[in-house]
Amino acid sequence: SAVISQKPSRDICQRGTSLTIQCQVDSQVTMMFWYRQQPGQSLTLIATANQGSEATYESGFVIDKFPISRPNLTFSTLTVSNMSPEDSSIYLCSVVLGGLGEQYFGPGTRLTVT
Amino acid sequence: AQSVTQPDIHITVSEGASLELRCNYSYGATPYLFWYVQSPGQGLQLLLKYFSGDTLVQGIKGFEAEFKRSQSSFNLRKPSVHWSDAAEYFCAVVTSGSARQLTFGSGTQLTVLP
Predict the structure, then answer these.
(1) Whole-angstrom distance, CA of residue B8 vs CA of residue B5
(2) What pLDDT score does A11 carry?
(3) Within chain B, where are the H helices?
(4) pLDDT single digits (tens) A22-53
(5) Closest chain A C-alpha to B6 CA, distance in angstroms
(6) Which range is least confidently modeled, A26-40, A77-91, A93-107, B15-29?
(7) DSSP per-residue letters across A77-110
(8) DSSP secondary structure string, A24-56?
(9) Cα–Cα–Cα angle for A50, A56, A57, nearest 5°?
């Protein structure tokens, strides 16, 4: 497995502001994903962030709202822009280790928008 | 499109009792299957995985799961539940060969009574 850290672990933000979430991995990984978990819900994939290419967004998520950077093989950021209370969720990053799709998750960032 | 169904939203068992959490998937080929656990305020931890071979797989914390192709199921079991097993459990499937994108079930919340 890998050690995956996220910063911040939680934050309370005001409507209309932006928050950048960091994901750091202790080994080099090619495939990284960002997920959203709304209160009481399952996980929904926001985007795939592979190093060396533009992030690929899932239906319902757009780059203007959730810009992603992937500057190297151990780090990525997700920004939640122009936040509204509906963005209150846990945001998790994950990485793929091994050749068969085994994913490991960071501890998550709990975001509350007031 | 592929899908994962966890029919039980909430299960309550007594400590020491056996446990079975149900998971059904919809996919044409043999998928890669996973069970994750999410304790309160925590990220997701991988319990076990099935890729191929022996259909009964062992995981961490005394959990096991059995892949049954004829029933499109991958149920999670534990012979004796501990109070620390109280958590949310997610079944997930990787169905896109190279994209490694996980599709999650809606989750089952496990409550353990003393």
Answers:
(1) 9
(2) 97
(3) none
(4) 999 999 998 899 999 999 899 999 999 988 88
(5) 11
(6) A93-107
(7) EEEE-S--GGG-EEEEEEEEETTTTEEEE---EE
(8) EESS--S-EEEEEE-TT--EEEEEE--TTS--E
(9) 135
Contact A33 B42 (CB under 8 A): no
Tokens matching residue A97: 């280790």
Judged by a CB distance cut-off of 8 A, whether residue A34 touches chain B is: no
**Tens digits of residue pLDDT in B22-46:** 999 987 677 889 999 999 878 899 9
Contact between B4 and B103 (Cβ < 8 Å): yes
Encoding tokens for residue A76?
């990525």
Provide, as residue numbers in chain B, all residues whose Cβ is less than 8 Å from the Cβ of A101.
32, 94, 100, 102
- Between these two residues, B48 and B98, which has the higher pLDDT value? B48
List, in sequence order, every residue forming a beta bridge with A47; answer none if it has no partner. A34, A57
Using CB atoms, pick whichever of A43, A101, A104 lies closest to residue B94: A101
What distance in Å separates the CA atoms of residue B33 and residue B73, rounded to the nearest whole number?
Answer: 10
Residue in A with minimal Cα distance to B108: A42
**Of A102, A98, A97, the residue nearest A74 (C-alpha):** A97
Report how far residue B85's alpha carbon sits from residue B75's, in angstroms, rounded to the nearest whole number: 16
Copy the structure tokens of residue B57: 């797989």
- B57-74 burial by CB neighbour count: b if 16+ within 10 A, else e? bebeeebbbbbeeeeebb
Six-digit token string for A93 = 């990053």
